[in-house]
Amino acid sequence: MRSNLSQSLKKSVVIKSSESLNQFQAVLNGVADWWLFLIRFFKELFHFPFEFNEFIRQGYKIGNKSLGLVTITGFIMGLVLTIQSRPTLADFGAESWLPGMVAISIVREIGPVITALICAGKVGSGIGAELGSMRVTEQIDAMEVSGTHPFRFLVVTRILATSIIVPILVFYSDFIGIIGSYVGANIDGDVTLQLFLMQATSALEFSDLIPATIKSVFFGLVIGLAGCYKGYNANKGTESVGVAANEAVVAASLLVFLVDVIAVQFTNIIL
After folding, report:
1. Which of 112, 158, 221, 243 is the most exposed place for a label (fewest CB within 10 A)?
2. Residues 6+ apart with CB under 8 A from 42
3. Could you give the CA distance from residue 266 to residue 269 in angstroms, rounded to a whole number?
4. What b/e sequence results for 125-161 when a residue is b if at least 16 CB atoms lie within 10 Å of its CB, and e otherwise?
5. Structural domain harbouring 244
6. Is the pLDDT of residue 14 over 60?
7. How many Å separate Cα 245 from the centre of its chain?
8. Is residue 17 situated within a structural domain?
9. Residue 75 belongs to some domain of the structure
């Protein structure tokens, strides 16, 4: 009886270890696929002819699709941050620091991350669903047969467009956030727009803008990468379109946070 029990325990341990090994191998294979997809993007990026018209169309589409939501979110972000911070600063008699504090918070961290998360949900899901539907309906296969380089036409243009448009949206969101902060400051106070903008911009330094801009480029890169990877490698079947869109949003959001952590640590080391 004891021998049978020990044998069953050994079998269960072997099964669990094999399952853990398979899961670890699956994770490694997934990471390798992501890296190969990224490397292929950089290789195809410098191959000619470049699909310039499609790049312009995707850039306009991505920016136009996200502009309204970014405007509303940026305004509310600055408004709420000001309303929440003002009582605390008033307790210490430091209300004059409010414009500079809000500007630094928005430009350094809140603006880029919130805007990137909005683009991850809006743009990443759209790219994943679009390419996923093209994979399901075999349009990508048809492009490969006709020799039109679908990766260069579909993937390179979209990733490059997100890498350029997301930083532009971040700058726009930062400005709208500061305007929202001005509105919040005038709810219980009276400050002119010129004075508020002067206090906000005087608190900012060149070292605040450069790291935020650089990591915004990487935010756009990982958002486009996640959407294109999930959509381009979608499985057959109509359900795969929804799965690709959902996984694109999740993957893009996680990658945004990962890039942000790396960027903050790297910035602290450099500066």
Report:
1. 243
2. none
3. 5
4. bbbbbbbbbbbbeeebeebeeeeebbbbbbbbbbbbb
5. 52-270
6. no
7. 14
8. no
9. yes
What is the spatial distance between Cα 231 and Cα 142, in angstroms, rounded to a whole number?
Answer: 16
pLDDT in tens, 228-253: 999 999 887 778 888 999 999 999 99
- The predicted pLDDT at position 180 comes to 94
Domain count for the chain: 1
Residue 109 lies in a domain: yes
Within a domain: residue 16? no
Written as six digits, the tokens of 48 are 């000619």
Closest CA to 160 of 228, 77, 240: 228
pLDDT cut 90: percent of the chain above it:
55
Distance CA 163, CA 222 (A): 8
- Amino acid of residue 121: G
Structure tokens at 68: 């309204």
Tens digit of each residue's pLDDT (9 = 90 or more) over 57-72: 999 999 988 999 999 9
> Who's near 243: CB < 8 A, 6+ residues apart?
132, 234, 235
